[in-house]
Amino acid sequence: MKIHPNTVPYYRPNLNPSPIMAANYLGKLADDVRRQTITMIHQAGSGHVASSLSCVDVLTALRFSLMRWEDSSRRDTFVLSKGHAAPAWYSTLMIAGDIPDTTPTLRQIDSPLQGHPDRQRLEFVDASTGALGQGLAMALGAALACRMDQSGRRVWCLLGDGECQEGEVWESLMFASAQALGTTTVFVDHNRSQSDGRLEDVMPIGDLAAKFQAFGWNVQTIDGHDMRQILRASHNATQIQDRPSVIVAETKKGFLRDGHIALNGAHGATFDDDSASQSLAVLGGGR
Q1: What are the tens digits of pLDDT across the range 209-241?
Q2: Is residue 180 part of a domain?
Q3: Which pTM was predicted?
């Protein structure tokens, strides 16, 4: 049985519950996902904490509201291009009841919960990712297939901002625009940091929104921790049919709640017992 069977319908004005009601519900689910993610990485003793927590709100909105999910034959496609954030996606699937709760096995050699998503090991992983820069090309291949089979399915993809330094990303952007893949929506987790430090110190990528727009994409920039903005921008993106859409989500690494960041947002830091307890305490006891 699913833990949260009553997902929030995709928000459409004058049809679904108010965006405030939907956002409040999703925000509570996002905190559940954060707790699960922290517990999972703490028990494993390794994992990309900060990168997982920065995209929890987007992943929660995708699974519980934005993606068509219940009809398996017409389920939307999702590619987690920043594959190192896999613990957050695993947690989302567990909270939804899509996969069993195997939290203690993260990163173990025979576990379905690998450090990066493996579609051969786990259901609801649509692409094996981890080599940064490749996920968008996979997503666009799926979008072309959806066009050919006339399924009406949408394709969603989550990019990291650091991986936008990869050349394959920009080739894919040109291709998507040239093919007018309007069923594709990409989120960029713009937390302004990567493994070796801040983007501006490693390889500045400038104004991402302006770059995407120059490549012919429909572009929106939002607060990636604000559920109402995530829902509104996603709704706007689905109304665009003649070109692909990107939502640049301004986020913070290690985000727990406003004013609270786990492990100072360090990319490669891991939890000890005290830091895990402190982060869980910030989130409270759950619903």
Answers
A1: 999 999 999 999 999 999 999 999 999 999 999
A2: yes
A3: 0.92
